[in-house]
Structures are given as C-alpha cells and as structure tokens.
Amino acid sequence: MDFNFENELENKIALVTGGSKGAGKAITDRLLKAGATVIITARNKPEENNGAHFIAADLSKPEGTQIVVDEVIEKFGRLDILVNNMGGSETPGGGFAALSDQDWETSFQINLLAPVRLDRGFLPGMIENRAGVIIHIASIQAKLPLYDSTLPYAAAKAALVNYSKSLSNEVSPKGVRVLTVSPGWIMTTASERMLERIAHSSNITIDQAHKSVMDGLGGIPFGRPAWPKEVAELVGFLVSPRAAYLTGTEYVIDGGTVPTV
C-alpha cells in the first residue's frame, strides 16, 4: 500500500484537546500539515491562529465537555481522530501532606475524567462509522511517579493508561483504534511553571529544581527533555493509515528514562 505522507489525513476531522500550546500545539500543527481539518479546545483562545478551529471550553467540568461534543457534531458532522492531550498538574510540592481533597479531585478531573467524557461523547459516531482513532496522552509518571511534586497527576495518568487499554479491548473489534502515548519530560511552558513551583516550595534555584527532576526520574539517557514536535511526530504516525494495525498499545517516548524493559 502506498501512502502520501503530506496529505495522508486529507478529509479527516481531528480534535486536539489542550491544542493551543506546548505538545498540543505541536500535535495540531502536525495534523494540519498532514491535511486534516483540526479543531482545538482550551479555556483561552490561542494568541496565534494556525488554521485550526477553536472551541472555548473548560474540560474539567462535564458541561465543558458537552459544549465541545455538541459543537463538533453540529459544525463538522463527525469526528475521525480524537487526541486527548489536555492534562497537567497544578498541585503544590511537598508530598502527600501538602495535598487537599480538591488537589486530588482537580487532577483526576483534568487528567482522567475529561478524556473519559470526550470518548463517551464521540465513540457512538465512530462505532457507527466503524472508523476512528483515539489517542490518550498519558505520562511515564504512571510508572515513575514524582511523589514530591506531582503525586495526584501520576495516579490519574496511571488510571488513564489502564482505562485506555480496557477501552481498546472493547471498541477495536468495532473499528475504532485506541492508543496511549506516554511521554517523559517535555520542555514546555507548563514544565517551566512546574520547575518554578518546585524551586519556590523547596527554596532552591531553577537550575537546582531542574536537576532534582532529572534525579527524580533517574536521569534521561538521551541527556535532555523531549521537544514538543518529537511527541507530535509520533502521534502523527499513530493516527495515520500507516498505523492501521496498531491498537491497544502504549507507546513510550522518554529518551530512555524508564529503566525497565
């Protein structure tokens, strides 16, 4: 089978959550380059218009998810590719004692329940068409949690990996591929904010915070965090026809960080 890499997603409708910055923006740009019509959603409109359709919504709330589902179906009629990229951690450093119930609930709403709701909203149409791809962006912290700074985030991502595998077992026979991408440390503005929080809570410098994260991960054999475009390239392949036989699998992109087979 021959593939045209430049237009391999032509006529495909894709949604990228958290697509206005960081890895989400890089994924959006990659799918646009491949010819897809791309919708992004975030709480705030991006400063730069790269050709994606924008929907303002807070996906940490059920009503925000419904806004996105309704608008996509009304304006585009269907969804072919769903990239559940939105996620992150805003919890304070300091381990378990520094965390409130609200910290835990917020992390699970953003990192687990938002993807679950979106999947539930779009899967009926994908199953009816017997076609579609769902990508869950998880994290290597599902296996290597940083208890000092991102404990709820790591727990929520571990739950997302488990859920993604289970969902793939259910819907792959119905024509929908479900995959997980687990990046290691990606150098984004969110990562920079995390370093600032660690530095502030531990009364250390940013460079020392950077070293503490590297040490907490056990080091990165490649020597640096990933660039957003490197994660985007993996996602671009996984949603393409070239990956038609891939489903139910977790793909780790971490520069060799995870020290196990």
From TrEMBL:
Keywords: Oxidoreductase. Gene3D superfamilies: NAD(P)-binding Rossmann-like Domain. GO terms for molecular function: oxidoreductase activity, acting on the CH-OH group of donors, NAD or NADP as acceptor. The keyword Oxidoreductase applies. It holds the Pfam family adh_short. InterPro entries: NAD(P)-bd_dom_sf (IPR036291), Sc_DH/Rdtase_CS (IPR020904), SDR_fam (IPR002347). Belongs to the short-chain dehydrogenases/reductases (SDR) family. PANTHER family: 3-OXOACYL-[ACYL-CARRIER-PROTEIN] REDUCTASE (PTHR42760:SF133), SHORT-CHAIN DEHYDROGENASES/REDUCTASES FAMILY MEMBER (PTHR42760). This is Short-chain dehydrogenase/reductase SDR.
